[in-house]
Amino acid sequence: MKMQTVLITGASSGIGAATARWLARQGMRVVLTARRQDRLEALAREIRAQGGSALTIPADLADPSARRRLVHQIEETWGPVEVLVNNAGFGYYATLEETPWEVVERMFAVNILAMIHLVQLVVPGMRRLGRGHIINIASVAGYISTPPLTVYSATKFAVVGLSEGLRRELKPHGIHVTVISPGPVRTEFGRVASGLAVDPGEVPGGLHPEAVARAIARALRRPVREIVIPARYRPAIWINRALPRLVDWGAARQGQAWLRHIEEARRRHKREAKETALNDPNRLIP
Ligand SMILES: NC(=O)c1ccc[n+]([C@@H]2O[C@H](COP(=O)([O-])OP(=O)(O)OC[C@H]3O[C@@H](n4cnc5c(N)ncnc54)[C@H](OP(=O)(O)O)[C@@H]3O)[C@@H](O)[C@H]2O)c1
Predict the structure, then answer these.
(1) Which domains are seen in the chain, by residue range?
(2) Predicted confidence (pLDDT) per residue in 246-284, tens digit
(3) CB 21 within 8 A of CB 43
(4) Distance between CA atoms of 159 and 130, rounded to whole angstroms?
C-alpha cells in the first residue's frame, strides 16, 4: 500500500477519520475532505506527527464545482487518485412525509450523486495508471429499508446498485470496486440524523469506526466485491428477501418506536436548552 494516494470523503469524523488514521499508518498518502476544515486540519496534524502524509481540502460535496476543484487540486499536488473511499453521507430520522424536500435533495446529492461524480472524475487518472480501487460505503440499510430512514435507505440501495454495475464496467481496466455495508457504527451519524445536534442514544451493539477502517484496509490488500460488517447482518438481509411480510411487521413497529424515542430526545433537548438559558446570569432581561 506504500505511497498510494487515497482520497477519503467524510474524513472529519466517524468512519472517514478512522479510515484516514488507519491507512496513513499503513504508509498511504491520505487526502482528507469534508466541510469542517478545523477537524480536517487537526487530523492531518495528528497524521503528520506520526510520520504520515496528509493533505486537507475542505469541500461541500453537494456542490458539483467543489468536487471538480477537489480532484483537480489533488492531481496538481500528488498526481492521480489511486484509491477513492466514497464515505461522506448522512441520514435524517423522519417519515418520508415529514422529511423536508431540501433534506431529500441534499441527501441524494451527498450520498449518491457526489459518489457518481467523484468516480467520473478519478477514473481517467486510474485508467492512465492501469490500476485503482474504489470503495463505496453503503449500509445494511442499502439492503433492508428500515423506517424512519426510508429516504436514506433509498440512497444506500442506489450505492449498492451503482457499485455492482461499476465493478463490472471497471474490471477490464484493472480497477477494483468494493461496496462496504456496515450495520450500526458509533459515530456522529445519530446526532446528525436527529436533526437537532442531540445524540438520541447509541444503537445497542454498534461497531467502533475502526472496525470498518480495518475492513477497508483488508479489501485494499485483497480485493473483494462486497463486505457486510458485522457478518451477522447477512442472514437478516436474506430473511428480508425471503420473508418480506415478517420483516414488514417487525420493521414498522421498530420504526415507530425509534421515532417516539427521537421525539422524546428532541423534547428533552429543547427543555434543557431553555433551562440553561434561564439559569444564565448574563442573559438579557427583556
Ligand atoms: N454510523 C452508522 O451507523 C453507519 C452505518 C452504515 C453506514 N454508514 C455510512 O458511513 C458513512 C460515514 O458516516 P459516519 O457514520 O462516519 O457518520 P459521521 O460521523 O456523521 O460522518 C459523516 C461524514 O460525512 C461528511 N459530510 C456530510 N455531509 C457532507 C457534505 N455536504 N460535504 C462533505 N462532507 C460531508 C461529514 O463531514 P462534515 O460535516 O465536516 O462535512 C462527516 O465527515 C456515511 O456514508 C454513512 O451513511 C454509517
Answers:
(1) 5-279 (3.40.50.720)
(2) 999 898 888 898 889 888 888 888 888 777 665 655 544
(3) yes
(4) 24
Which of 281 and 110 is assigned the larger pLDDT? 110
Q: Catalytic annotation on 152?
A: yes
Nearest of 145, 164, 162 to residue 154 by alpha carbon: 145
Burial class (CB in 10 A: 0-12, 13-18, 19+), 272: exposed
- Cα separation, 230 vs 215, whole angstroms: 10
Q: Can you give the pTM of this predicted structure?
A: 0.93
Residue 189 alpha carbon to ligand 1 centre in Å: 6
How does pLDDT run across 182-205, given as a tens digit for each residue? Answer: 999 999 998 899 876 556 666 667
Nearest to 30 by CA among 48, 14, 15: 48
Q: How confident is the model over 35-89, as pLDDT tens digits?
A: 999 999 999 999 999 999 999 999 999 999 999 999 999 999 999 999 999 999 9
Which residue's alpha carbon is nearest to atom 34 within ligand 1? 34
Ligand 1 cavity residues, CB under 6 Å? 10-16, 34-36, 60-62, 87-90, 110, 137, 139, 182, 184-185, 187-189, 192
Distance 286 CA to ligand 1 centre (A): 40
Amino acid at position 62, single letter: A
| Sequence-ordered list of residues with C-beta below 8 angstroms from that of 285, at least 6 positions apart, any chain | none
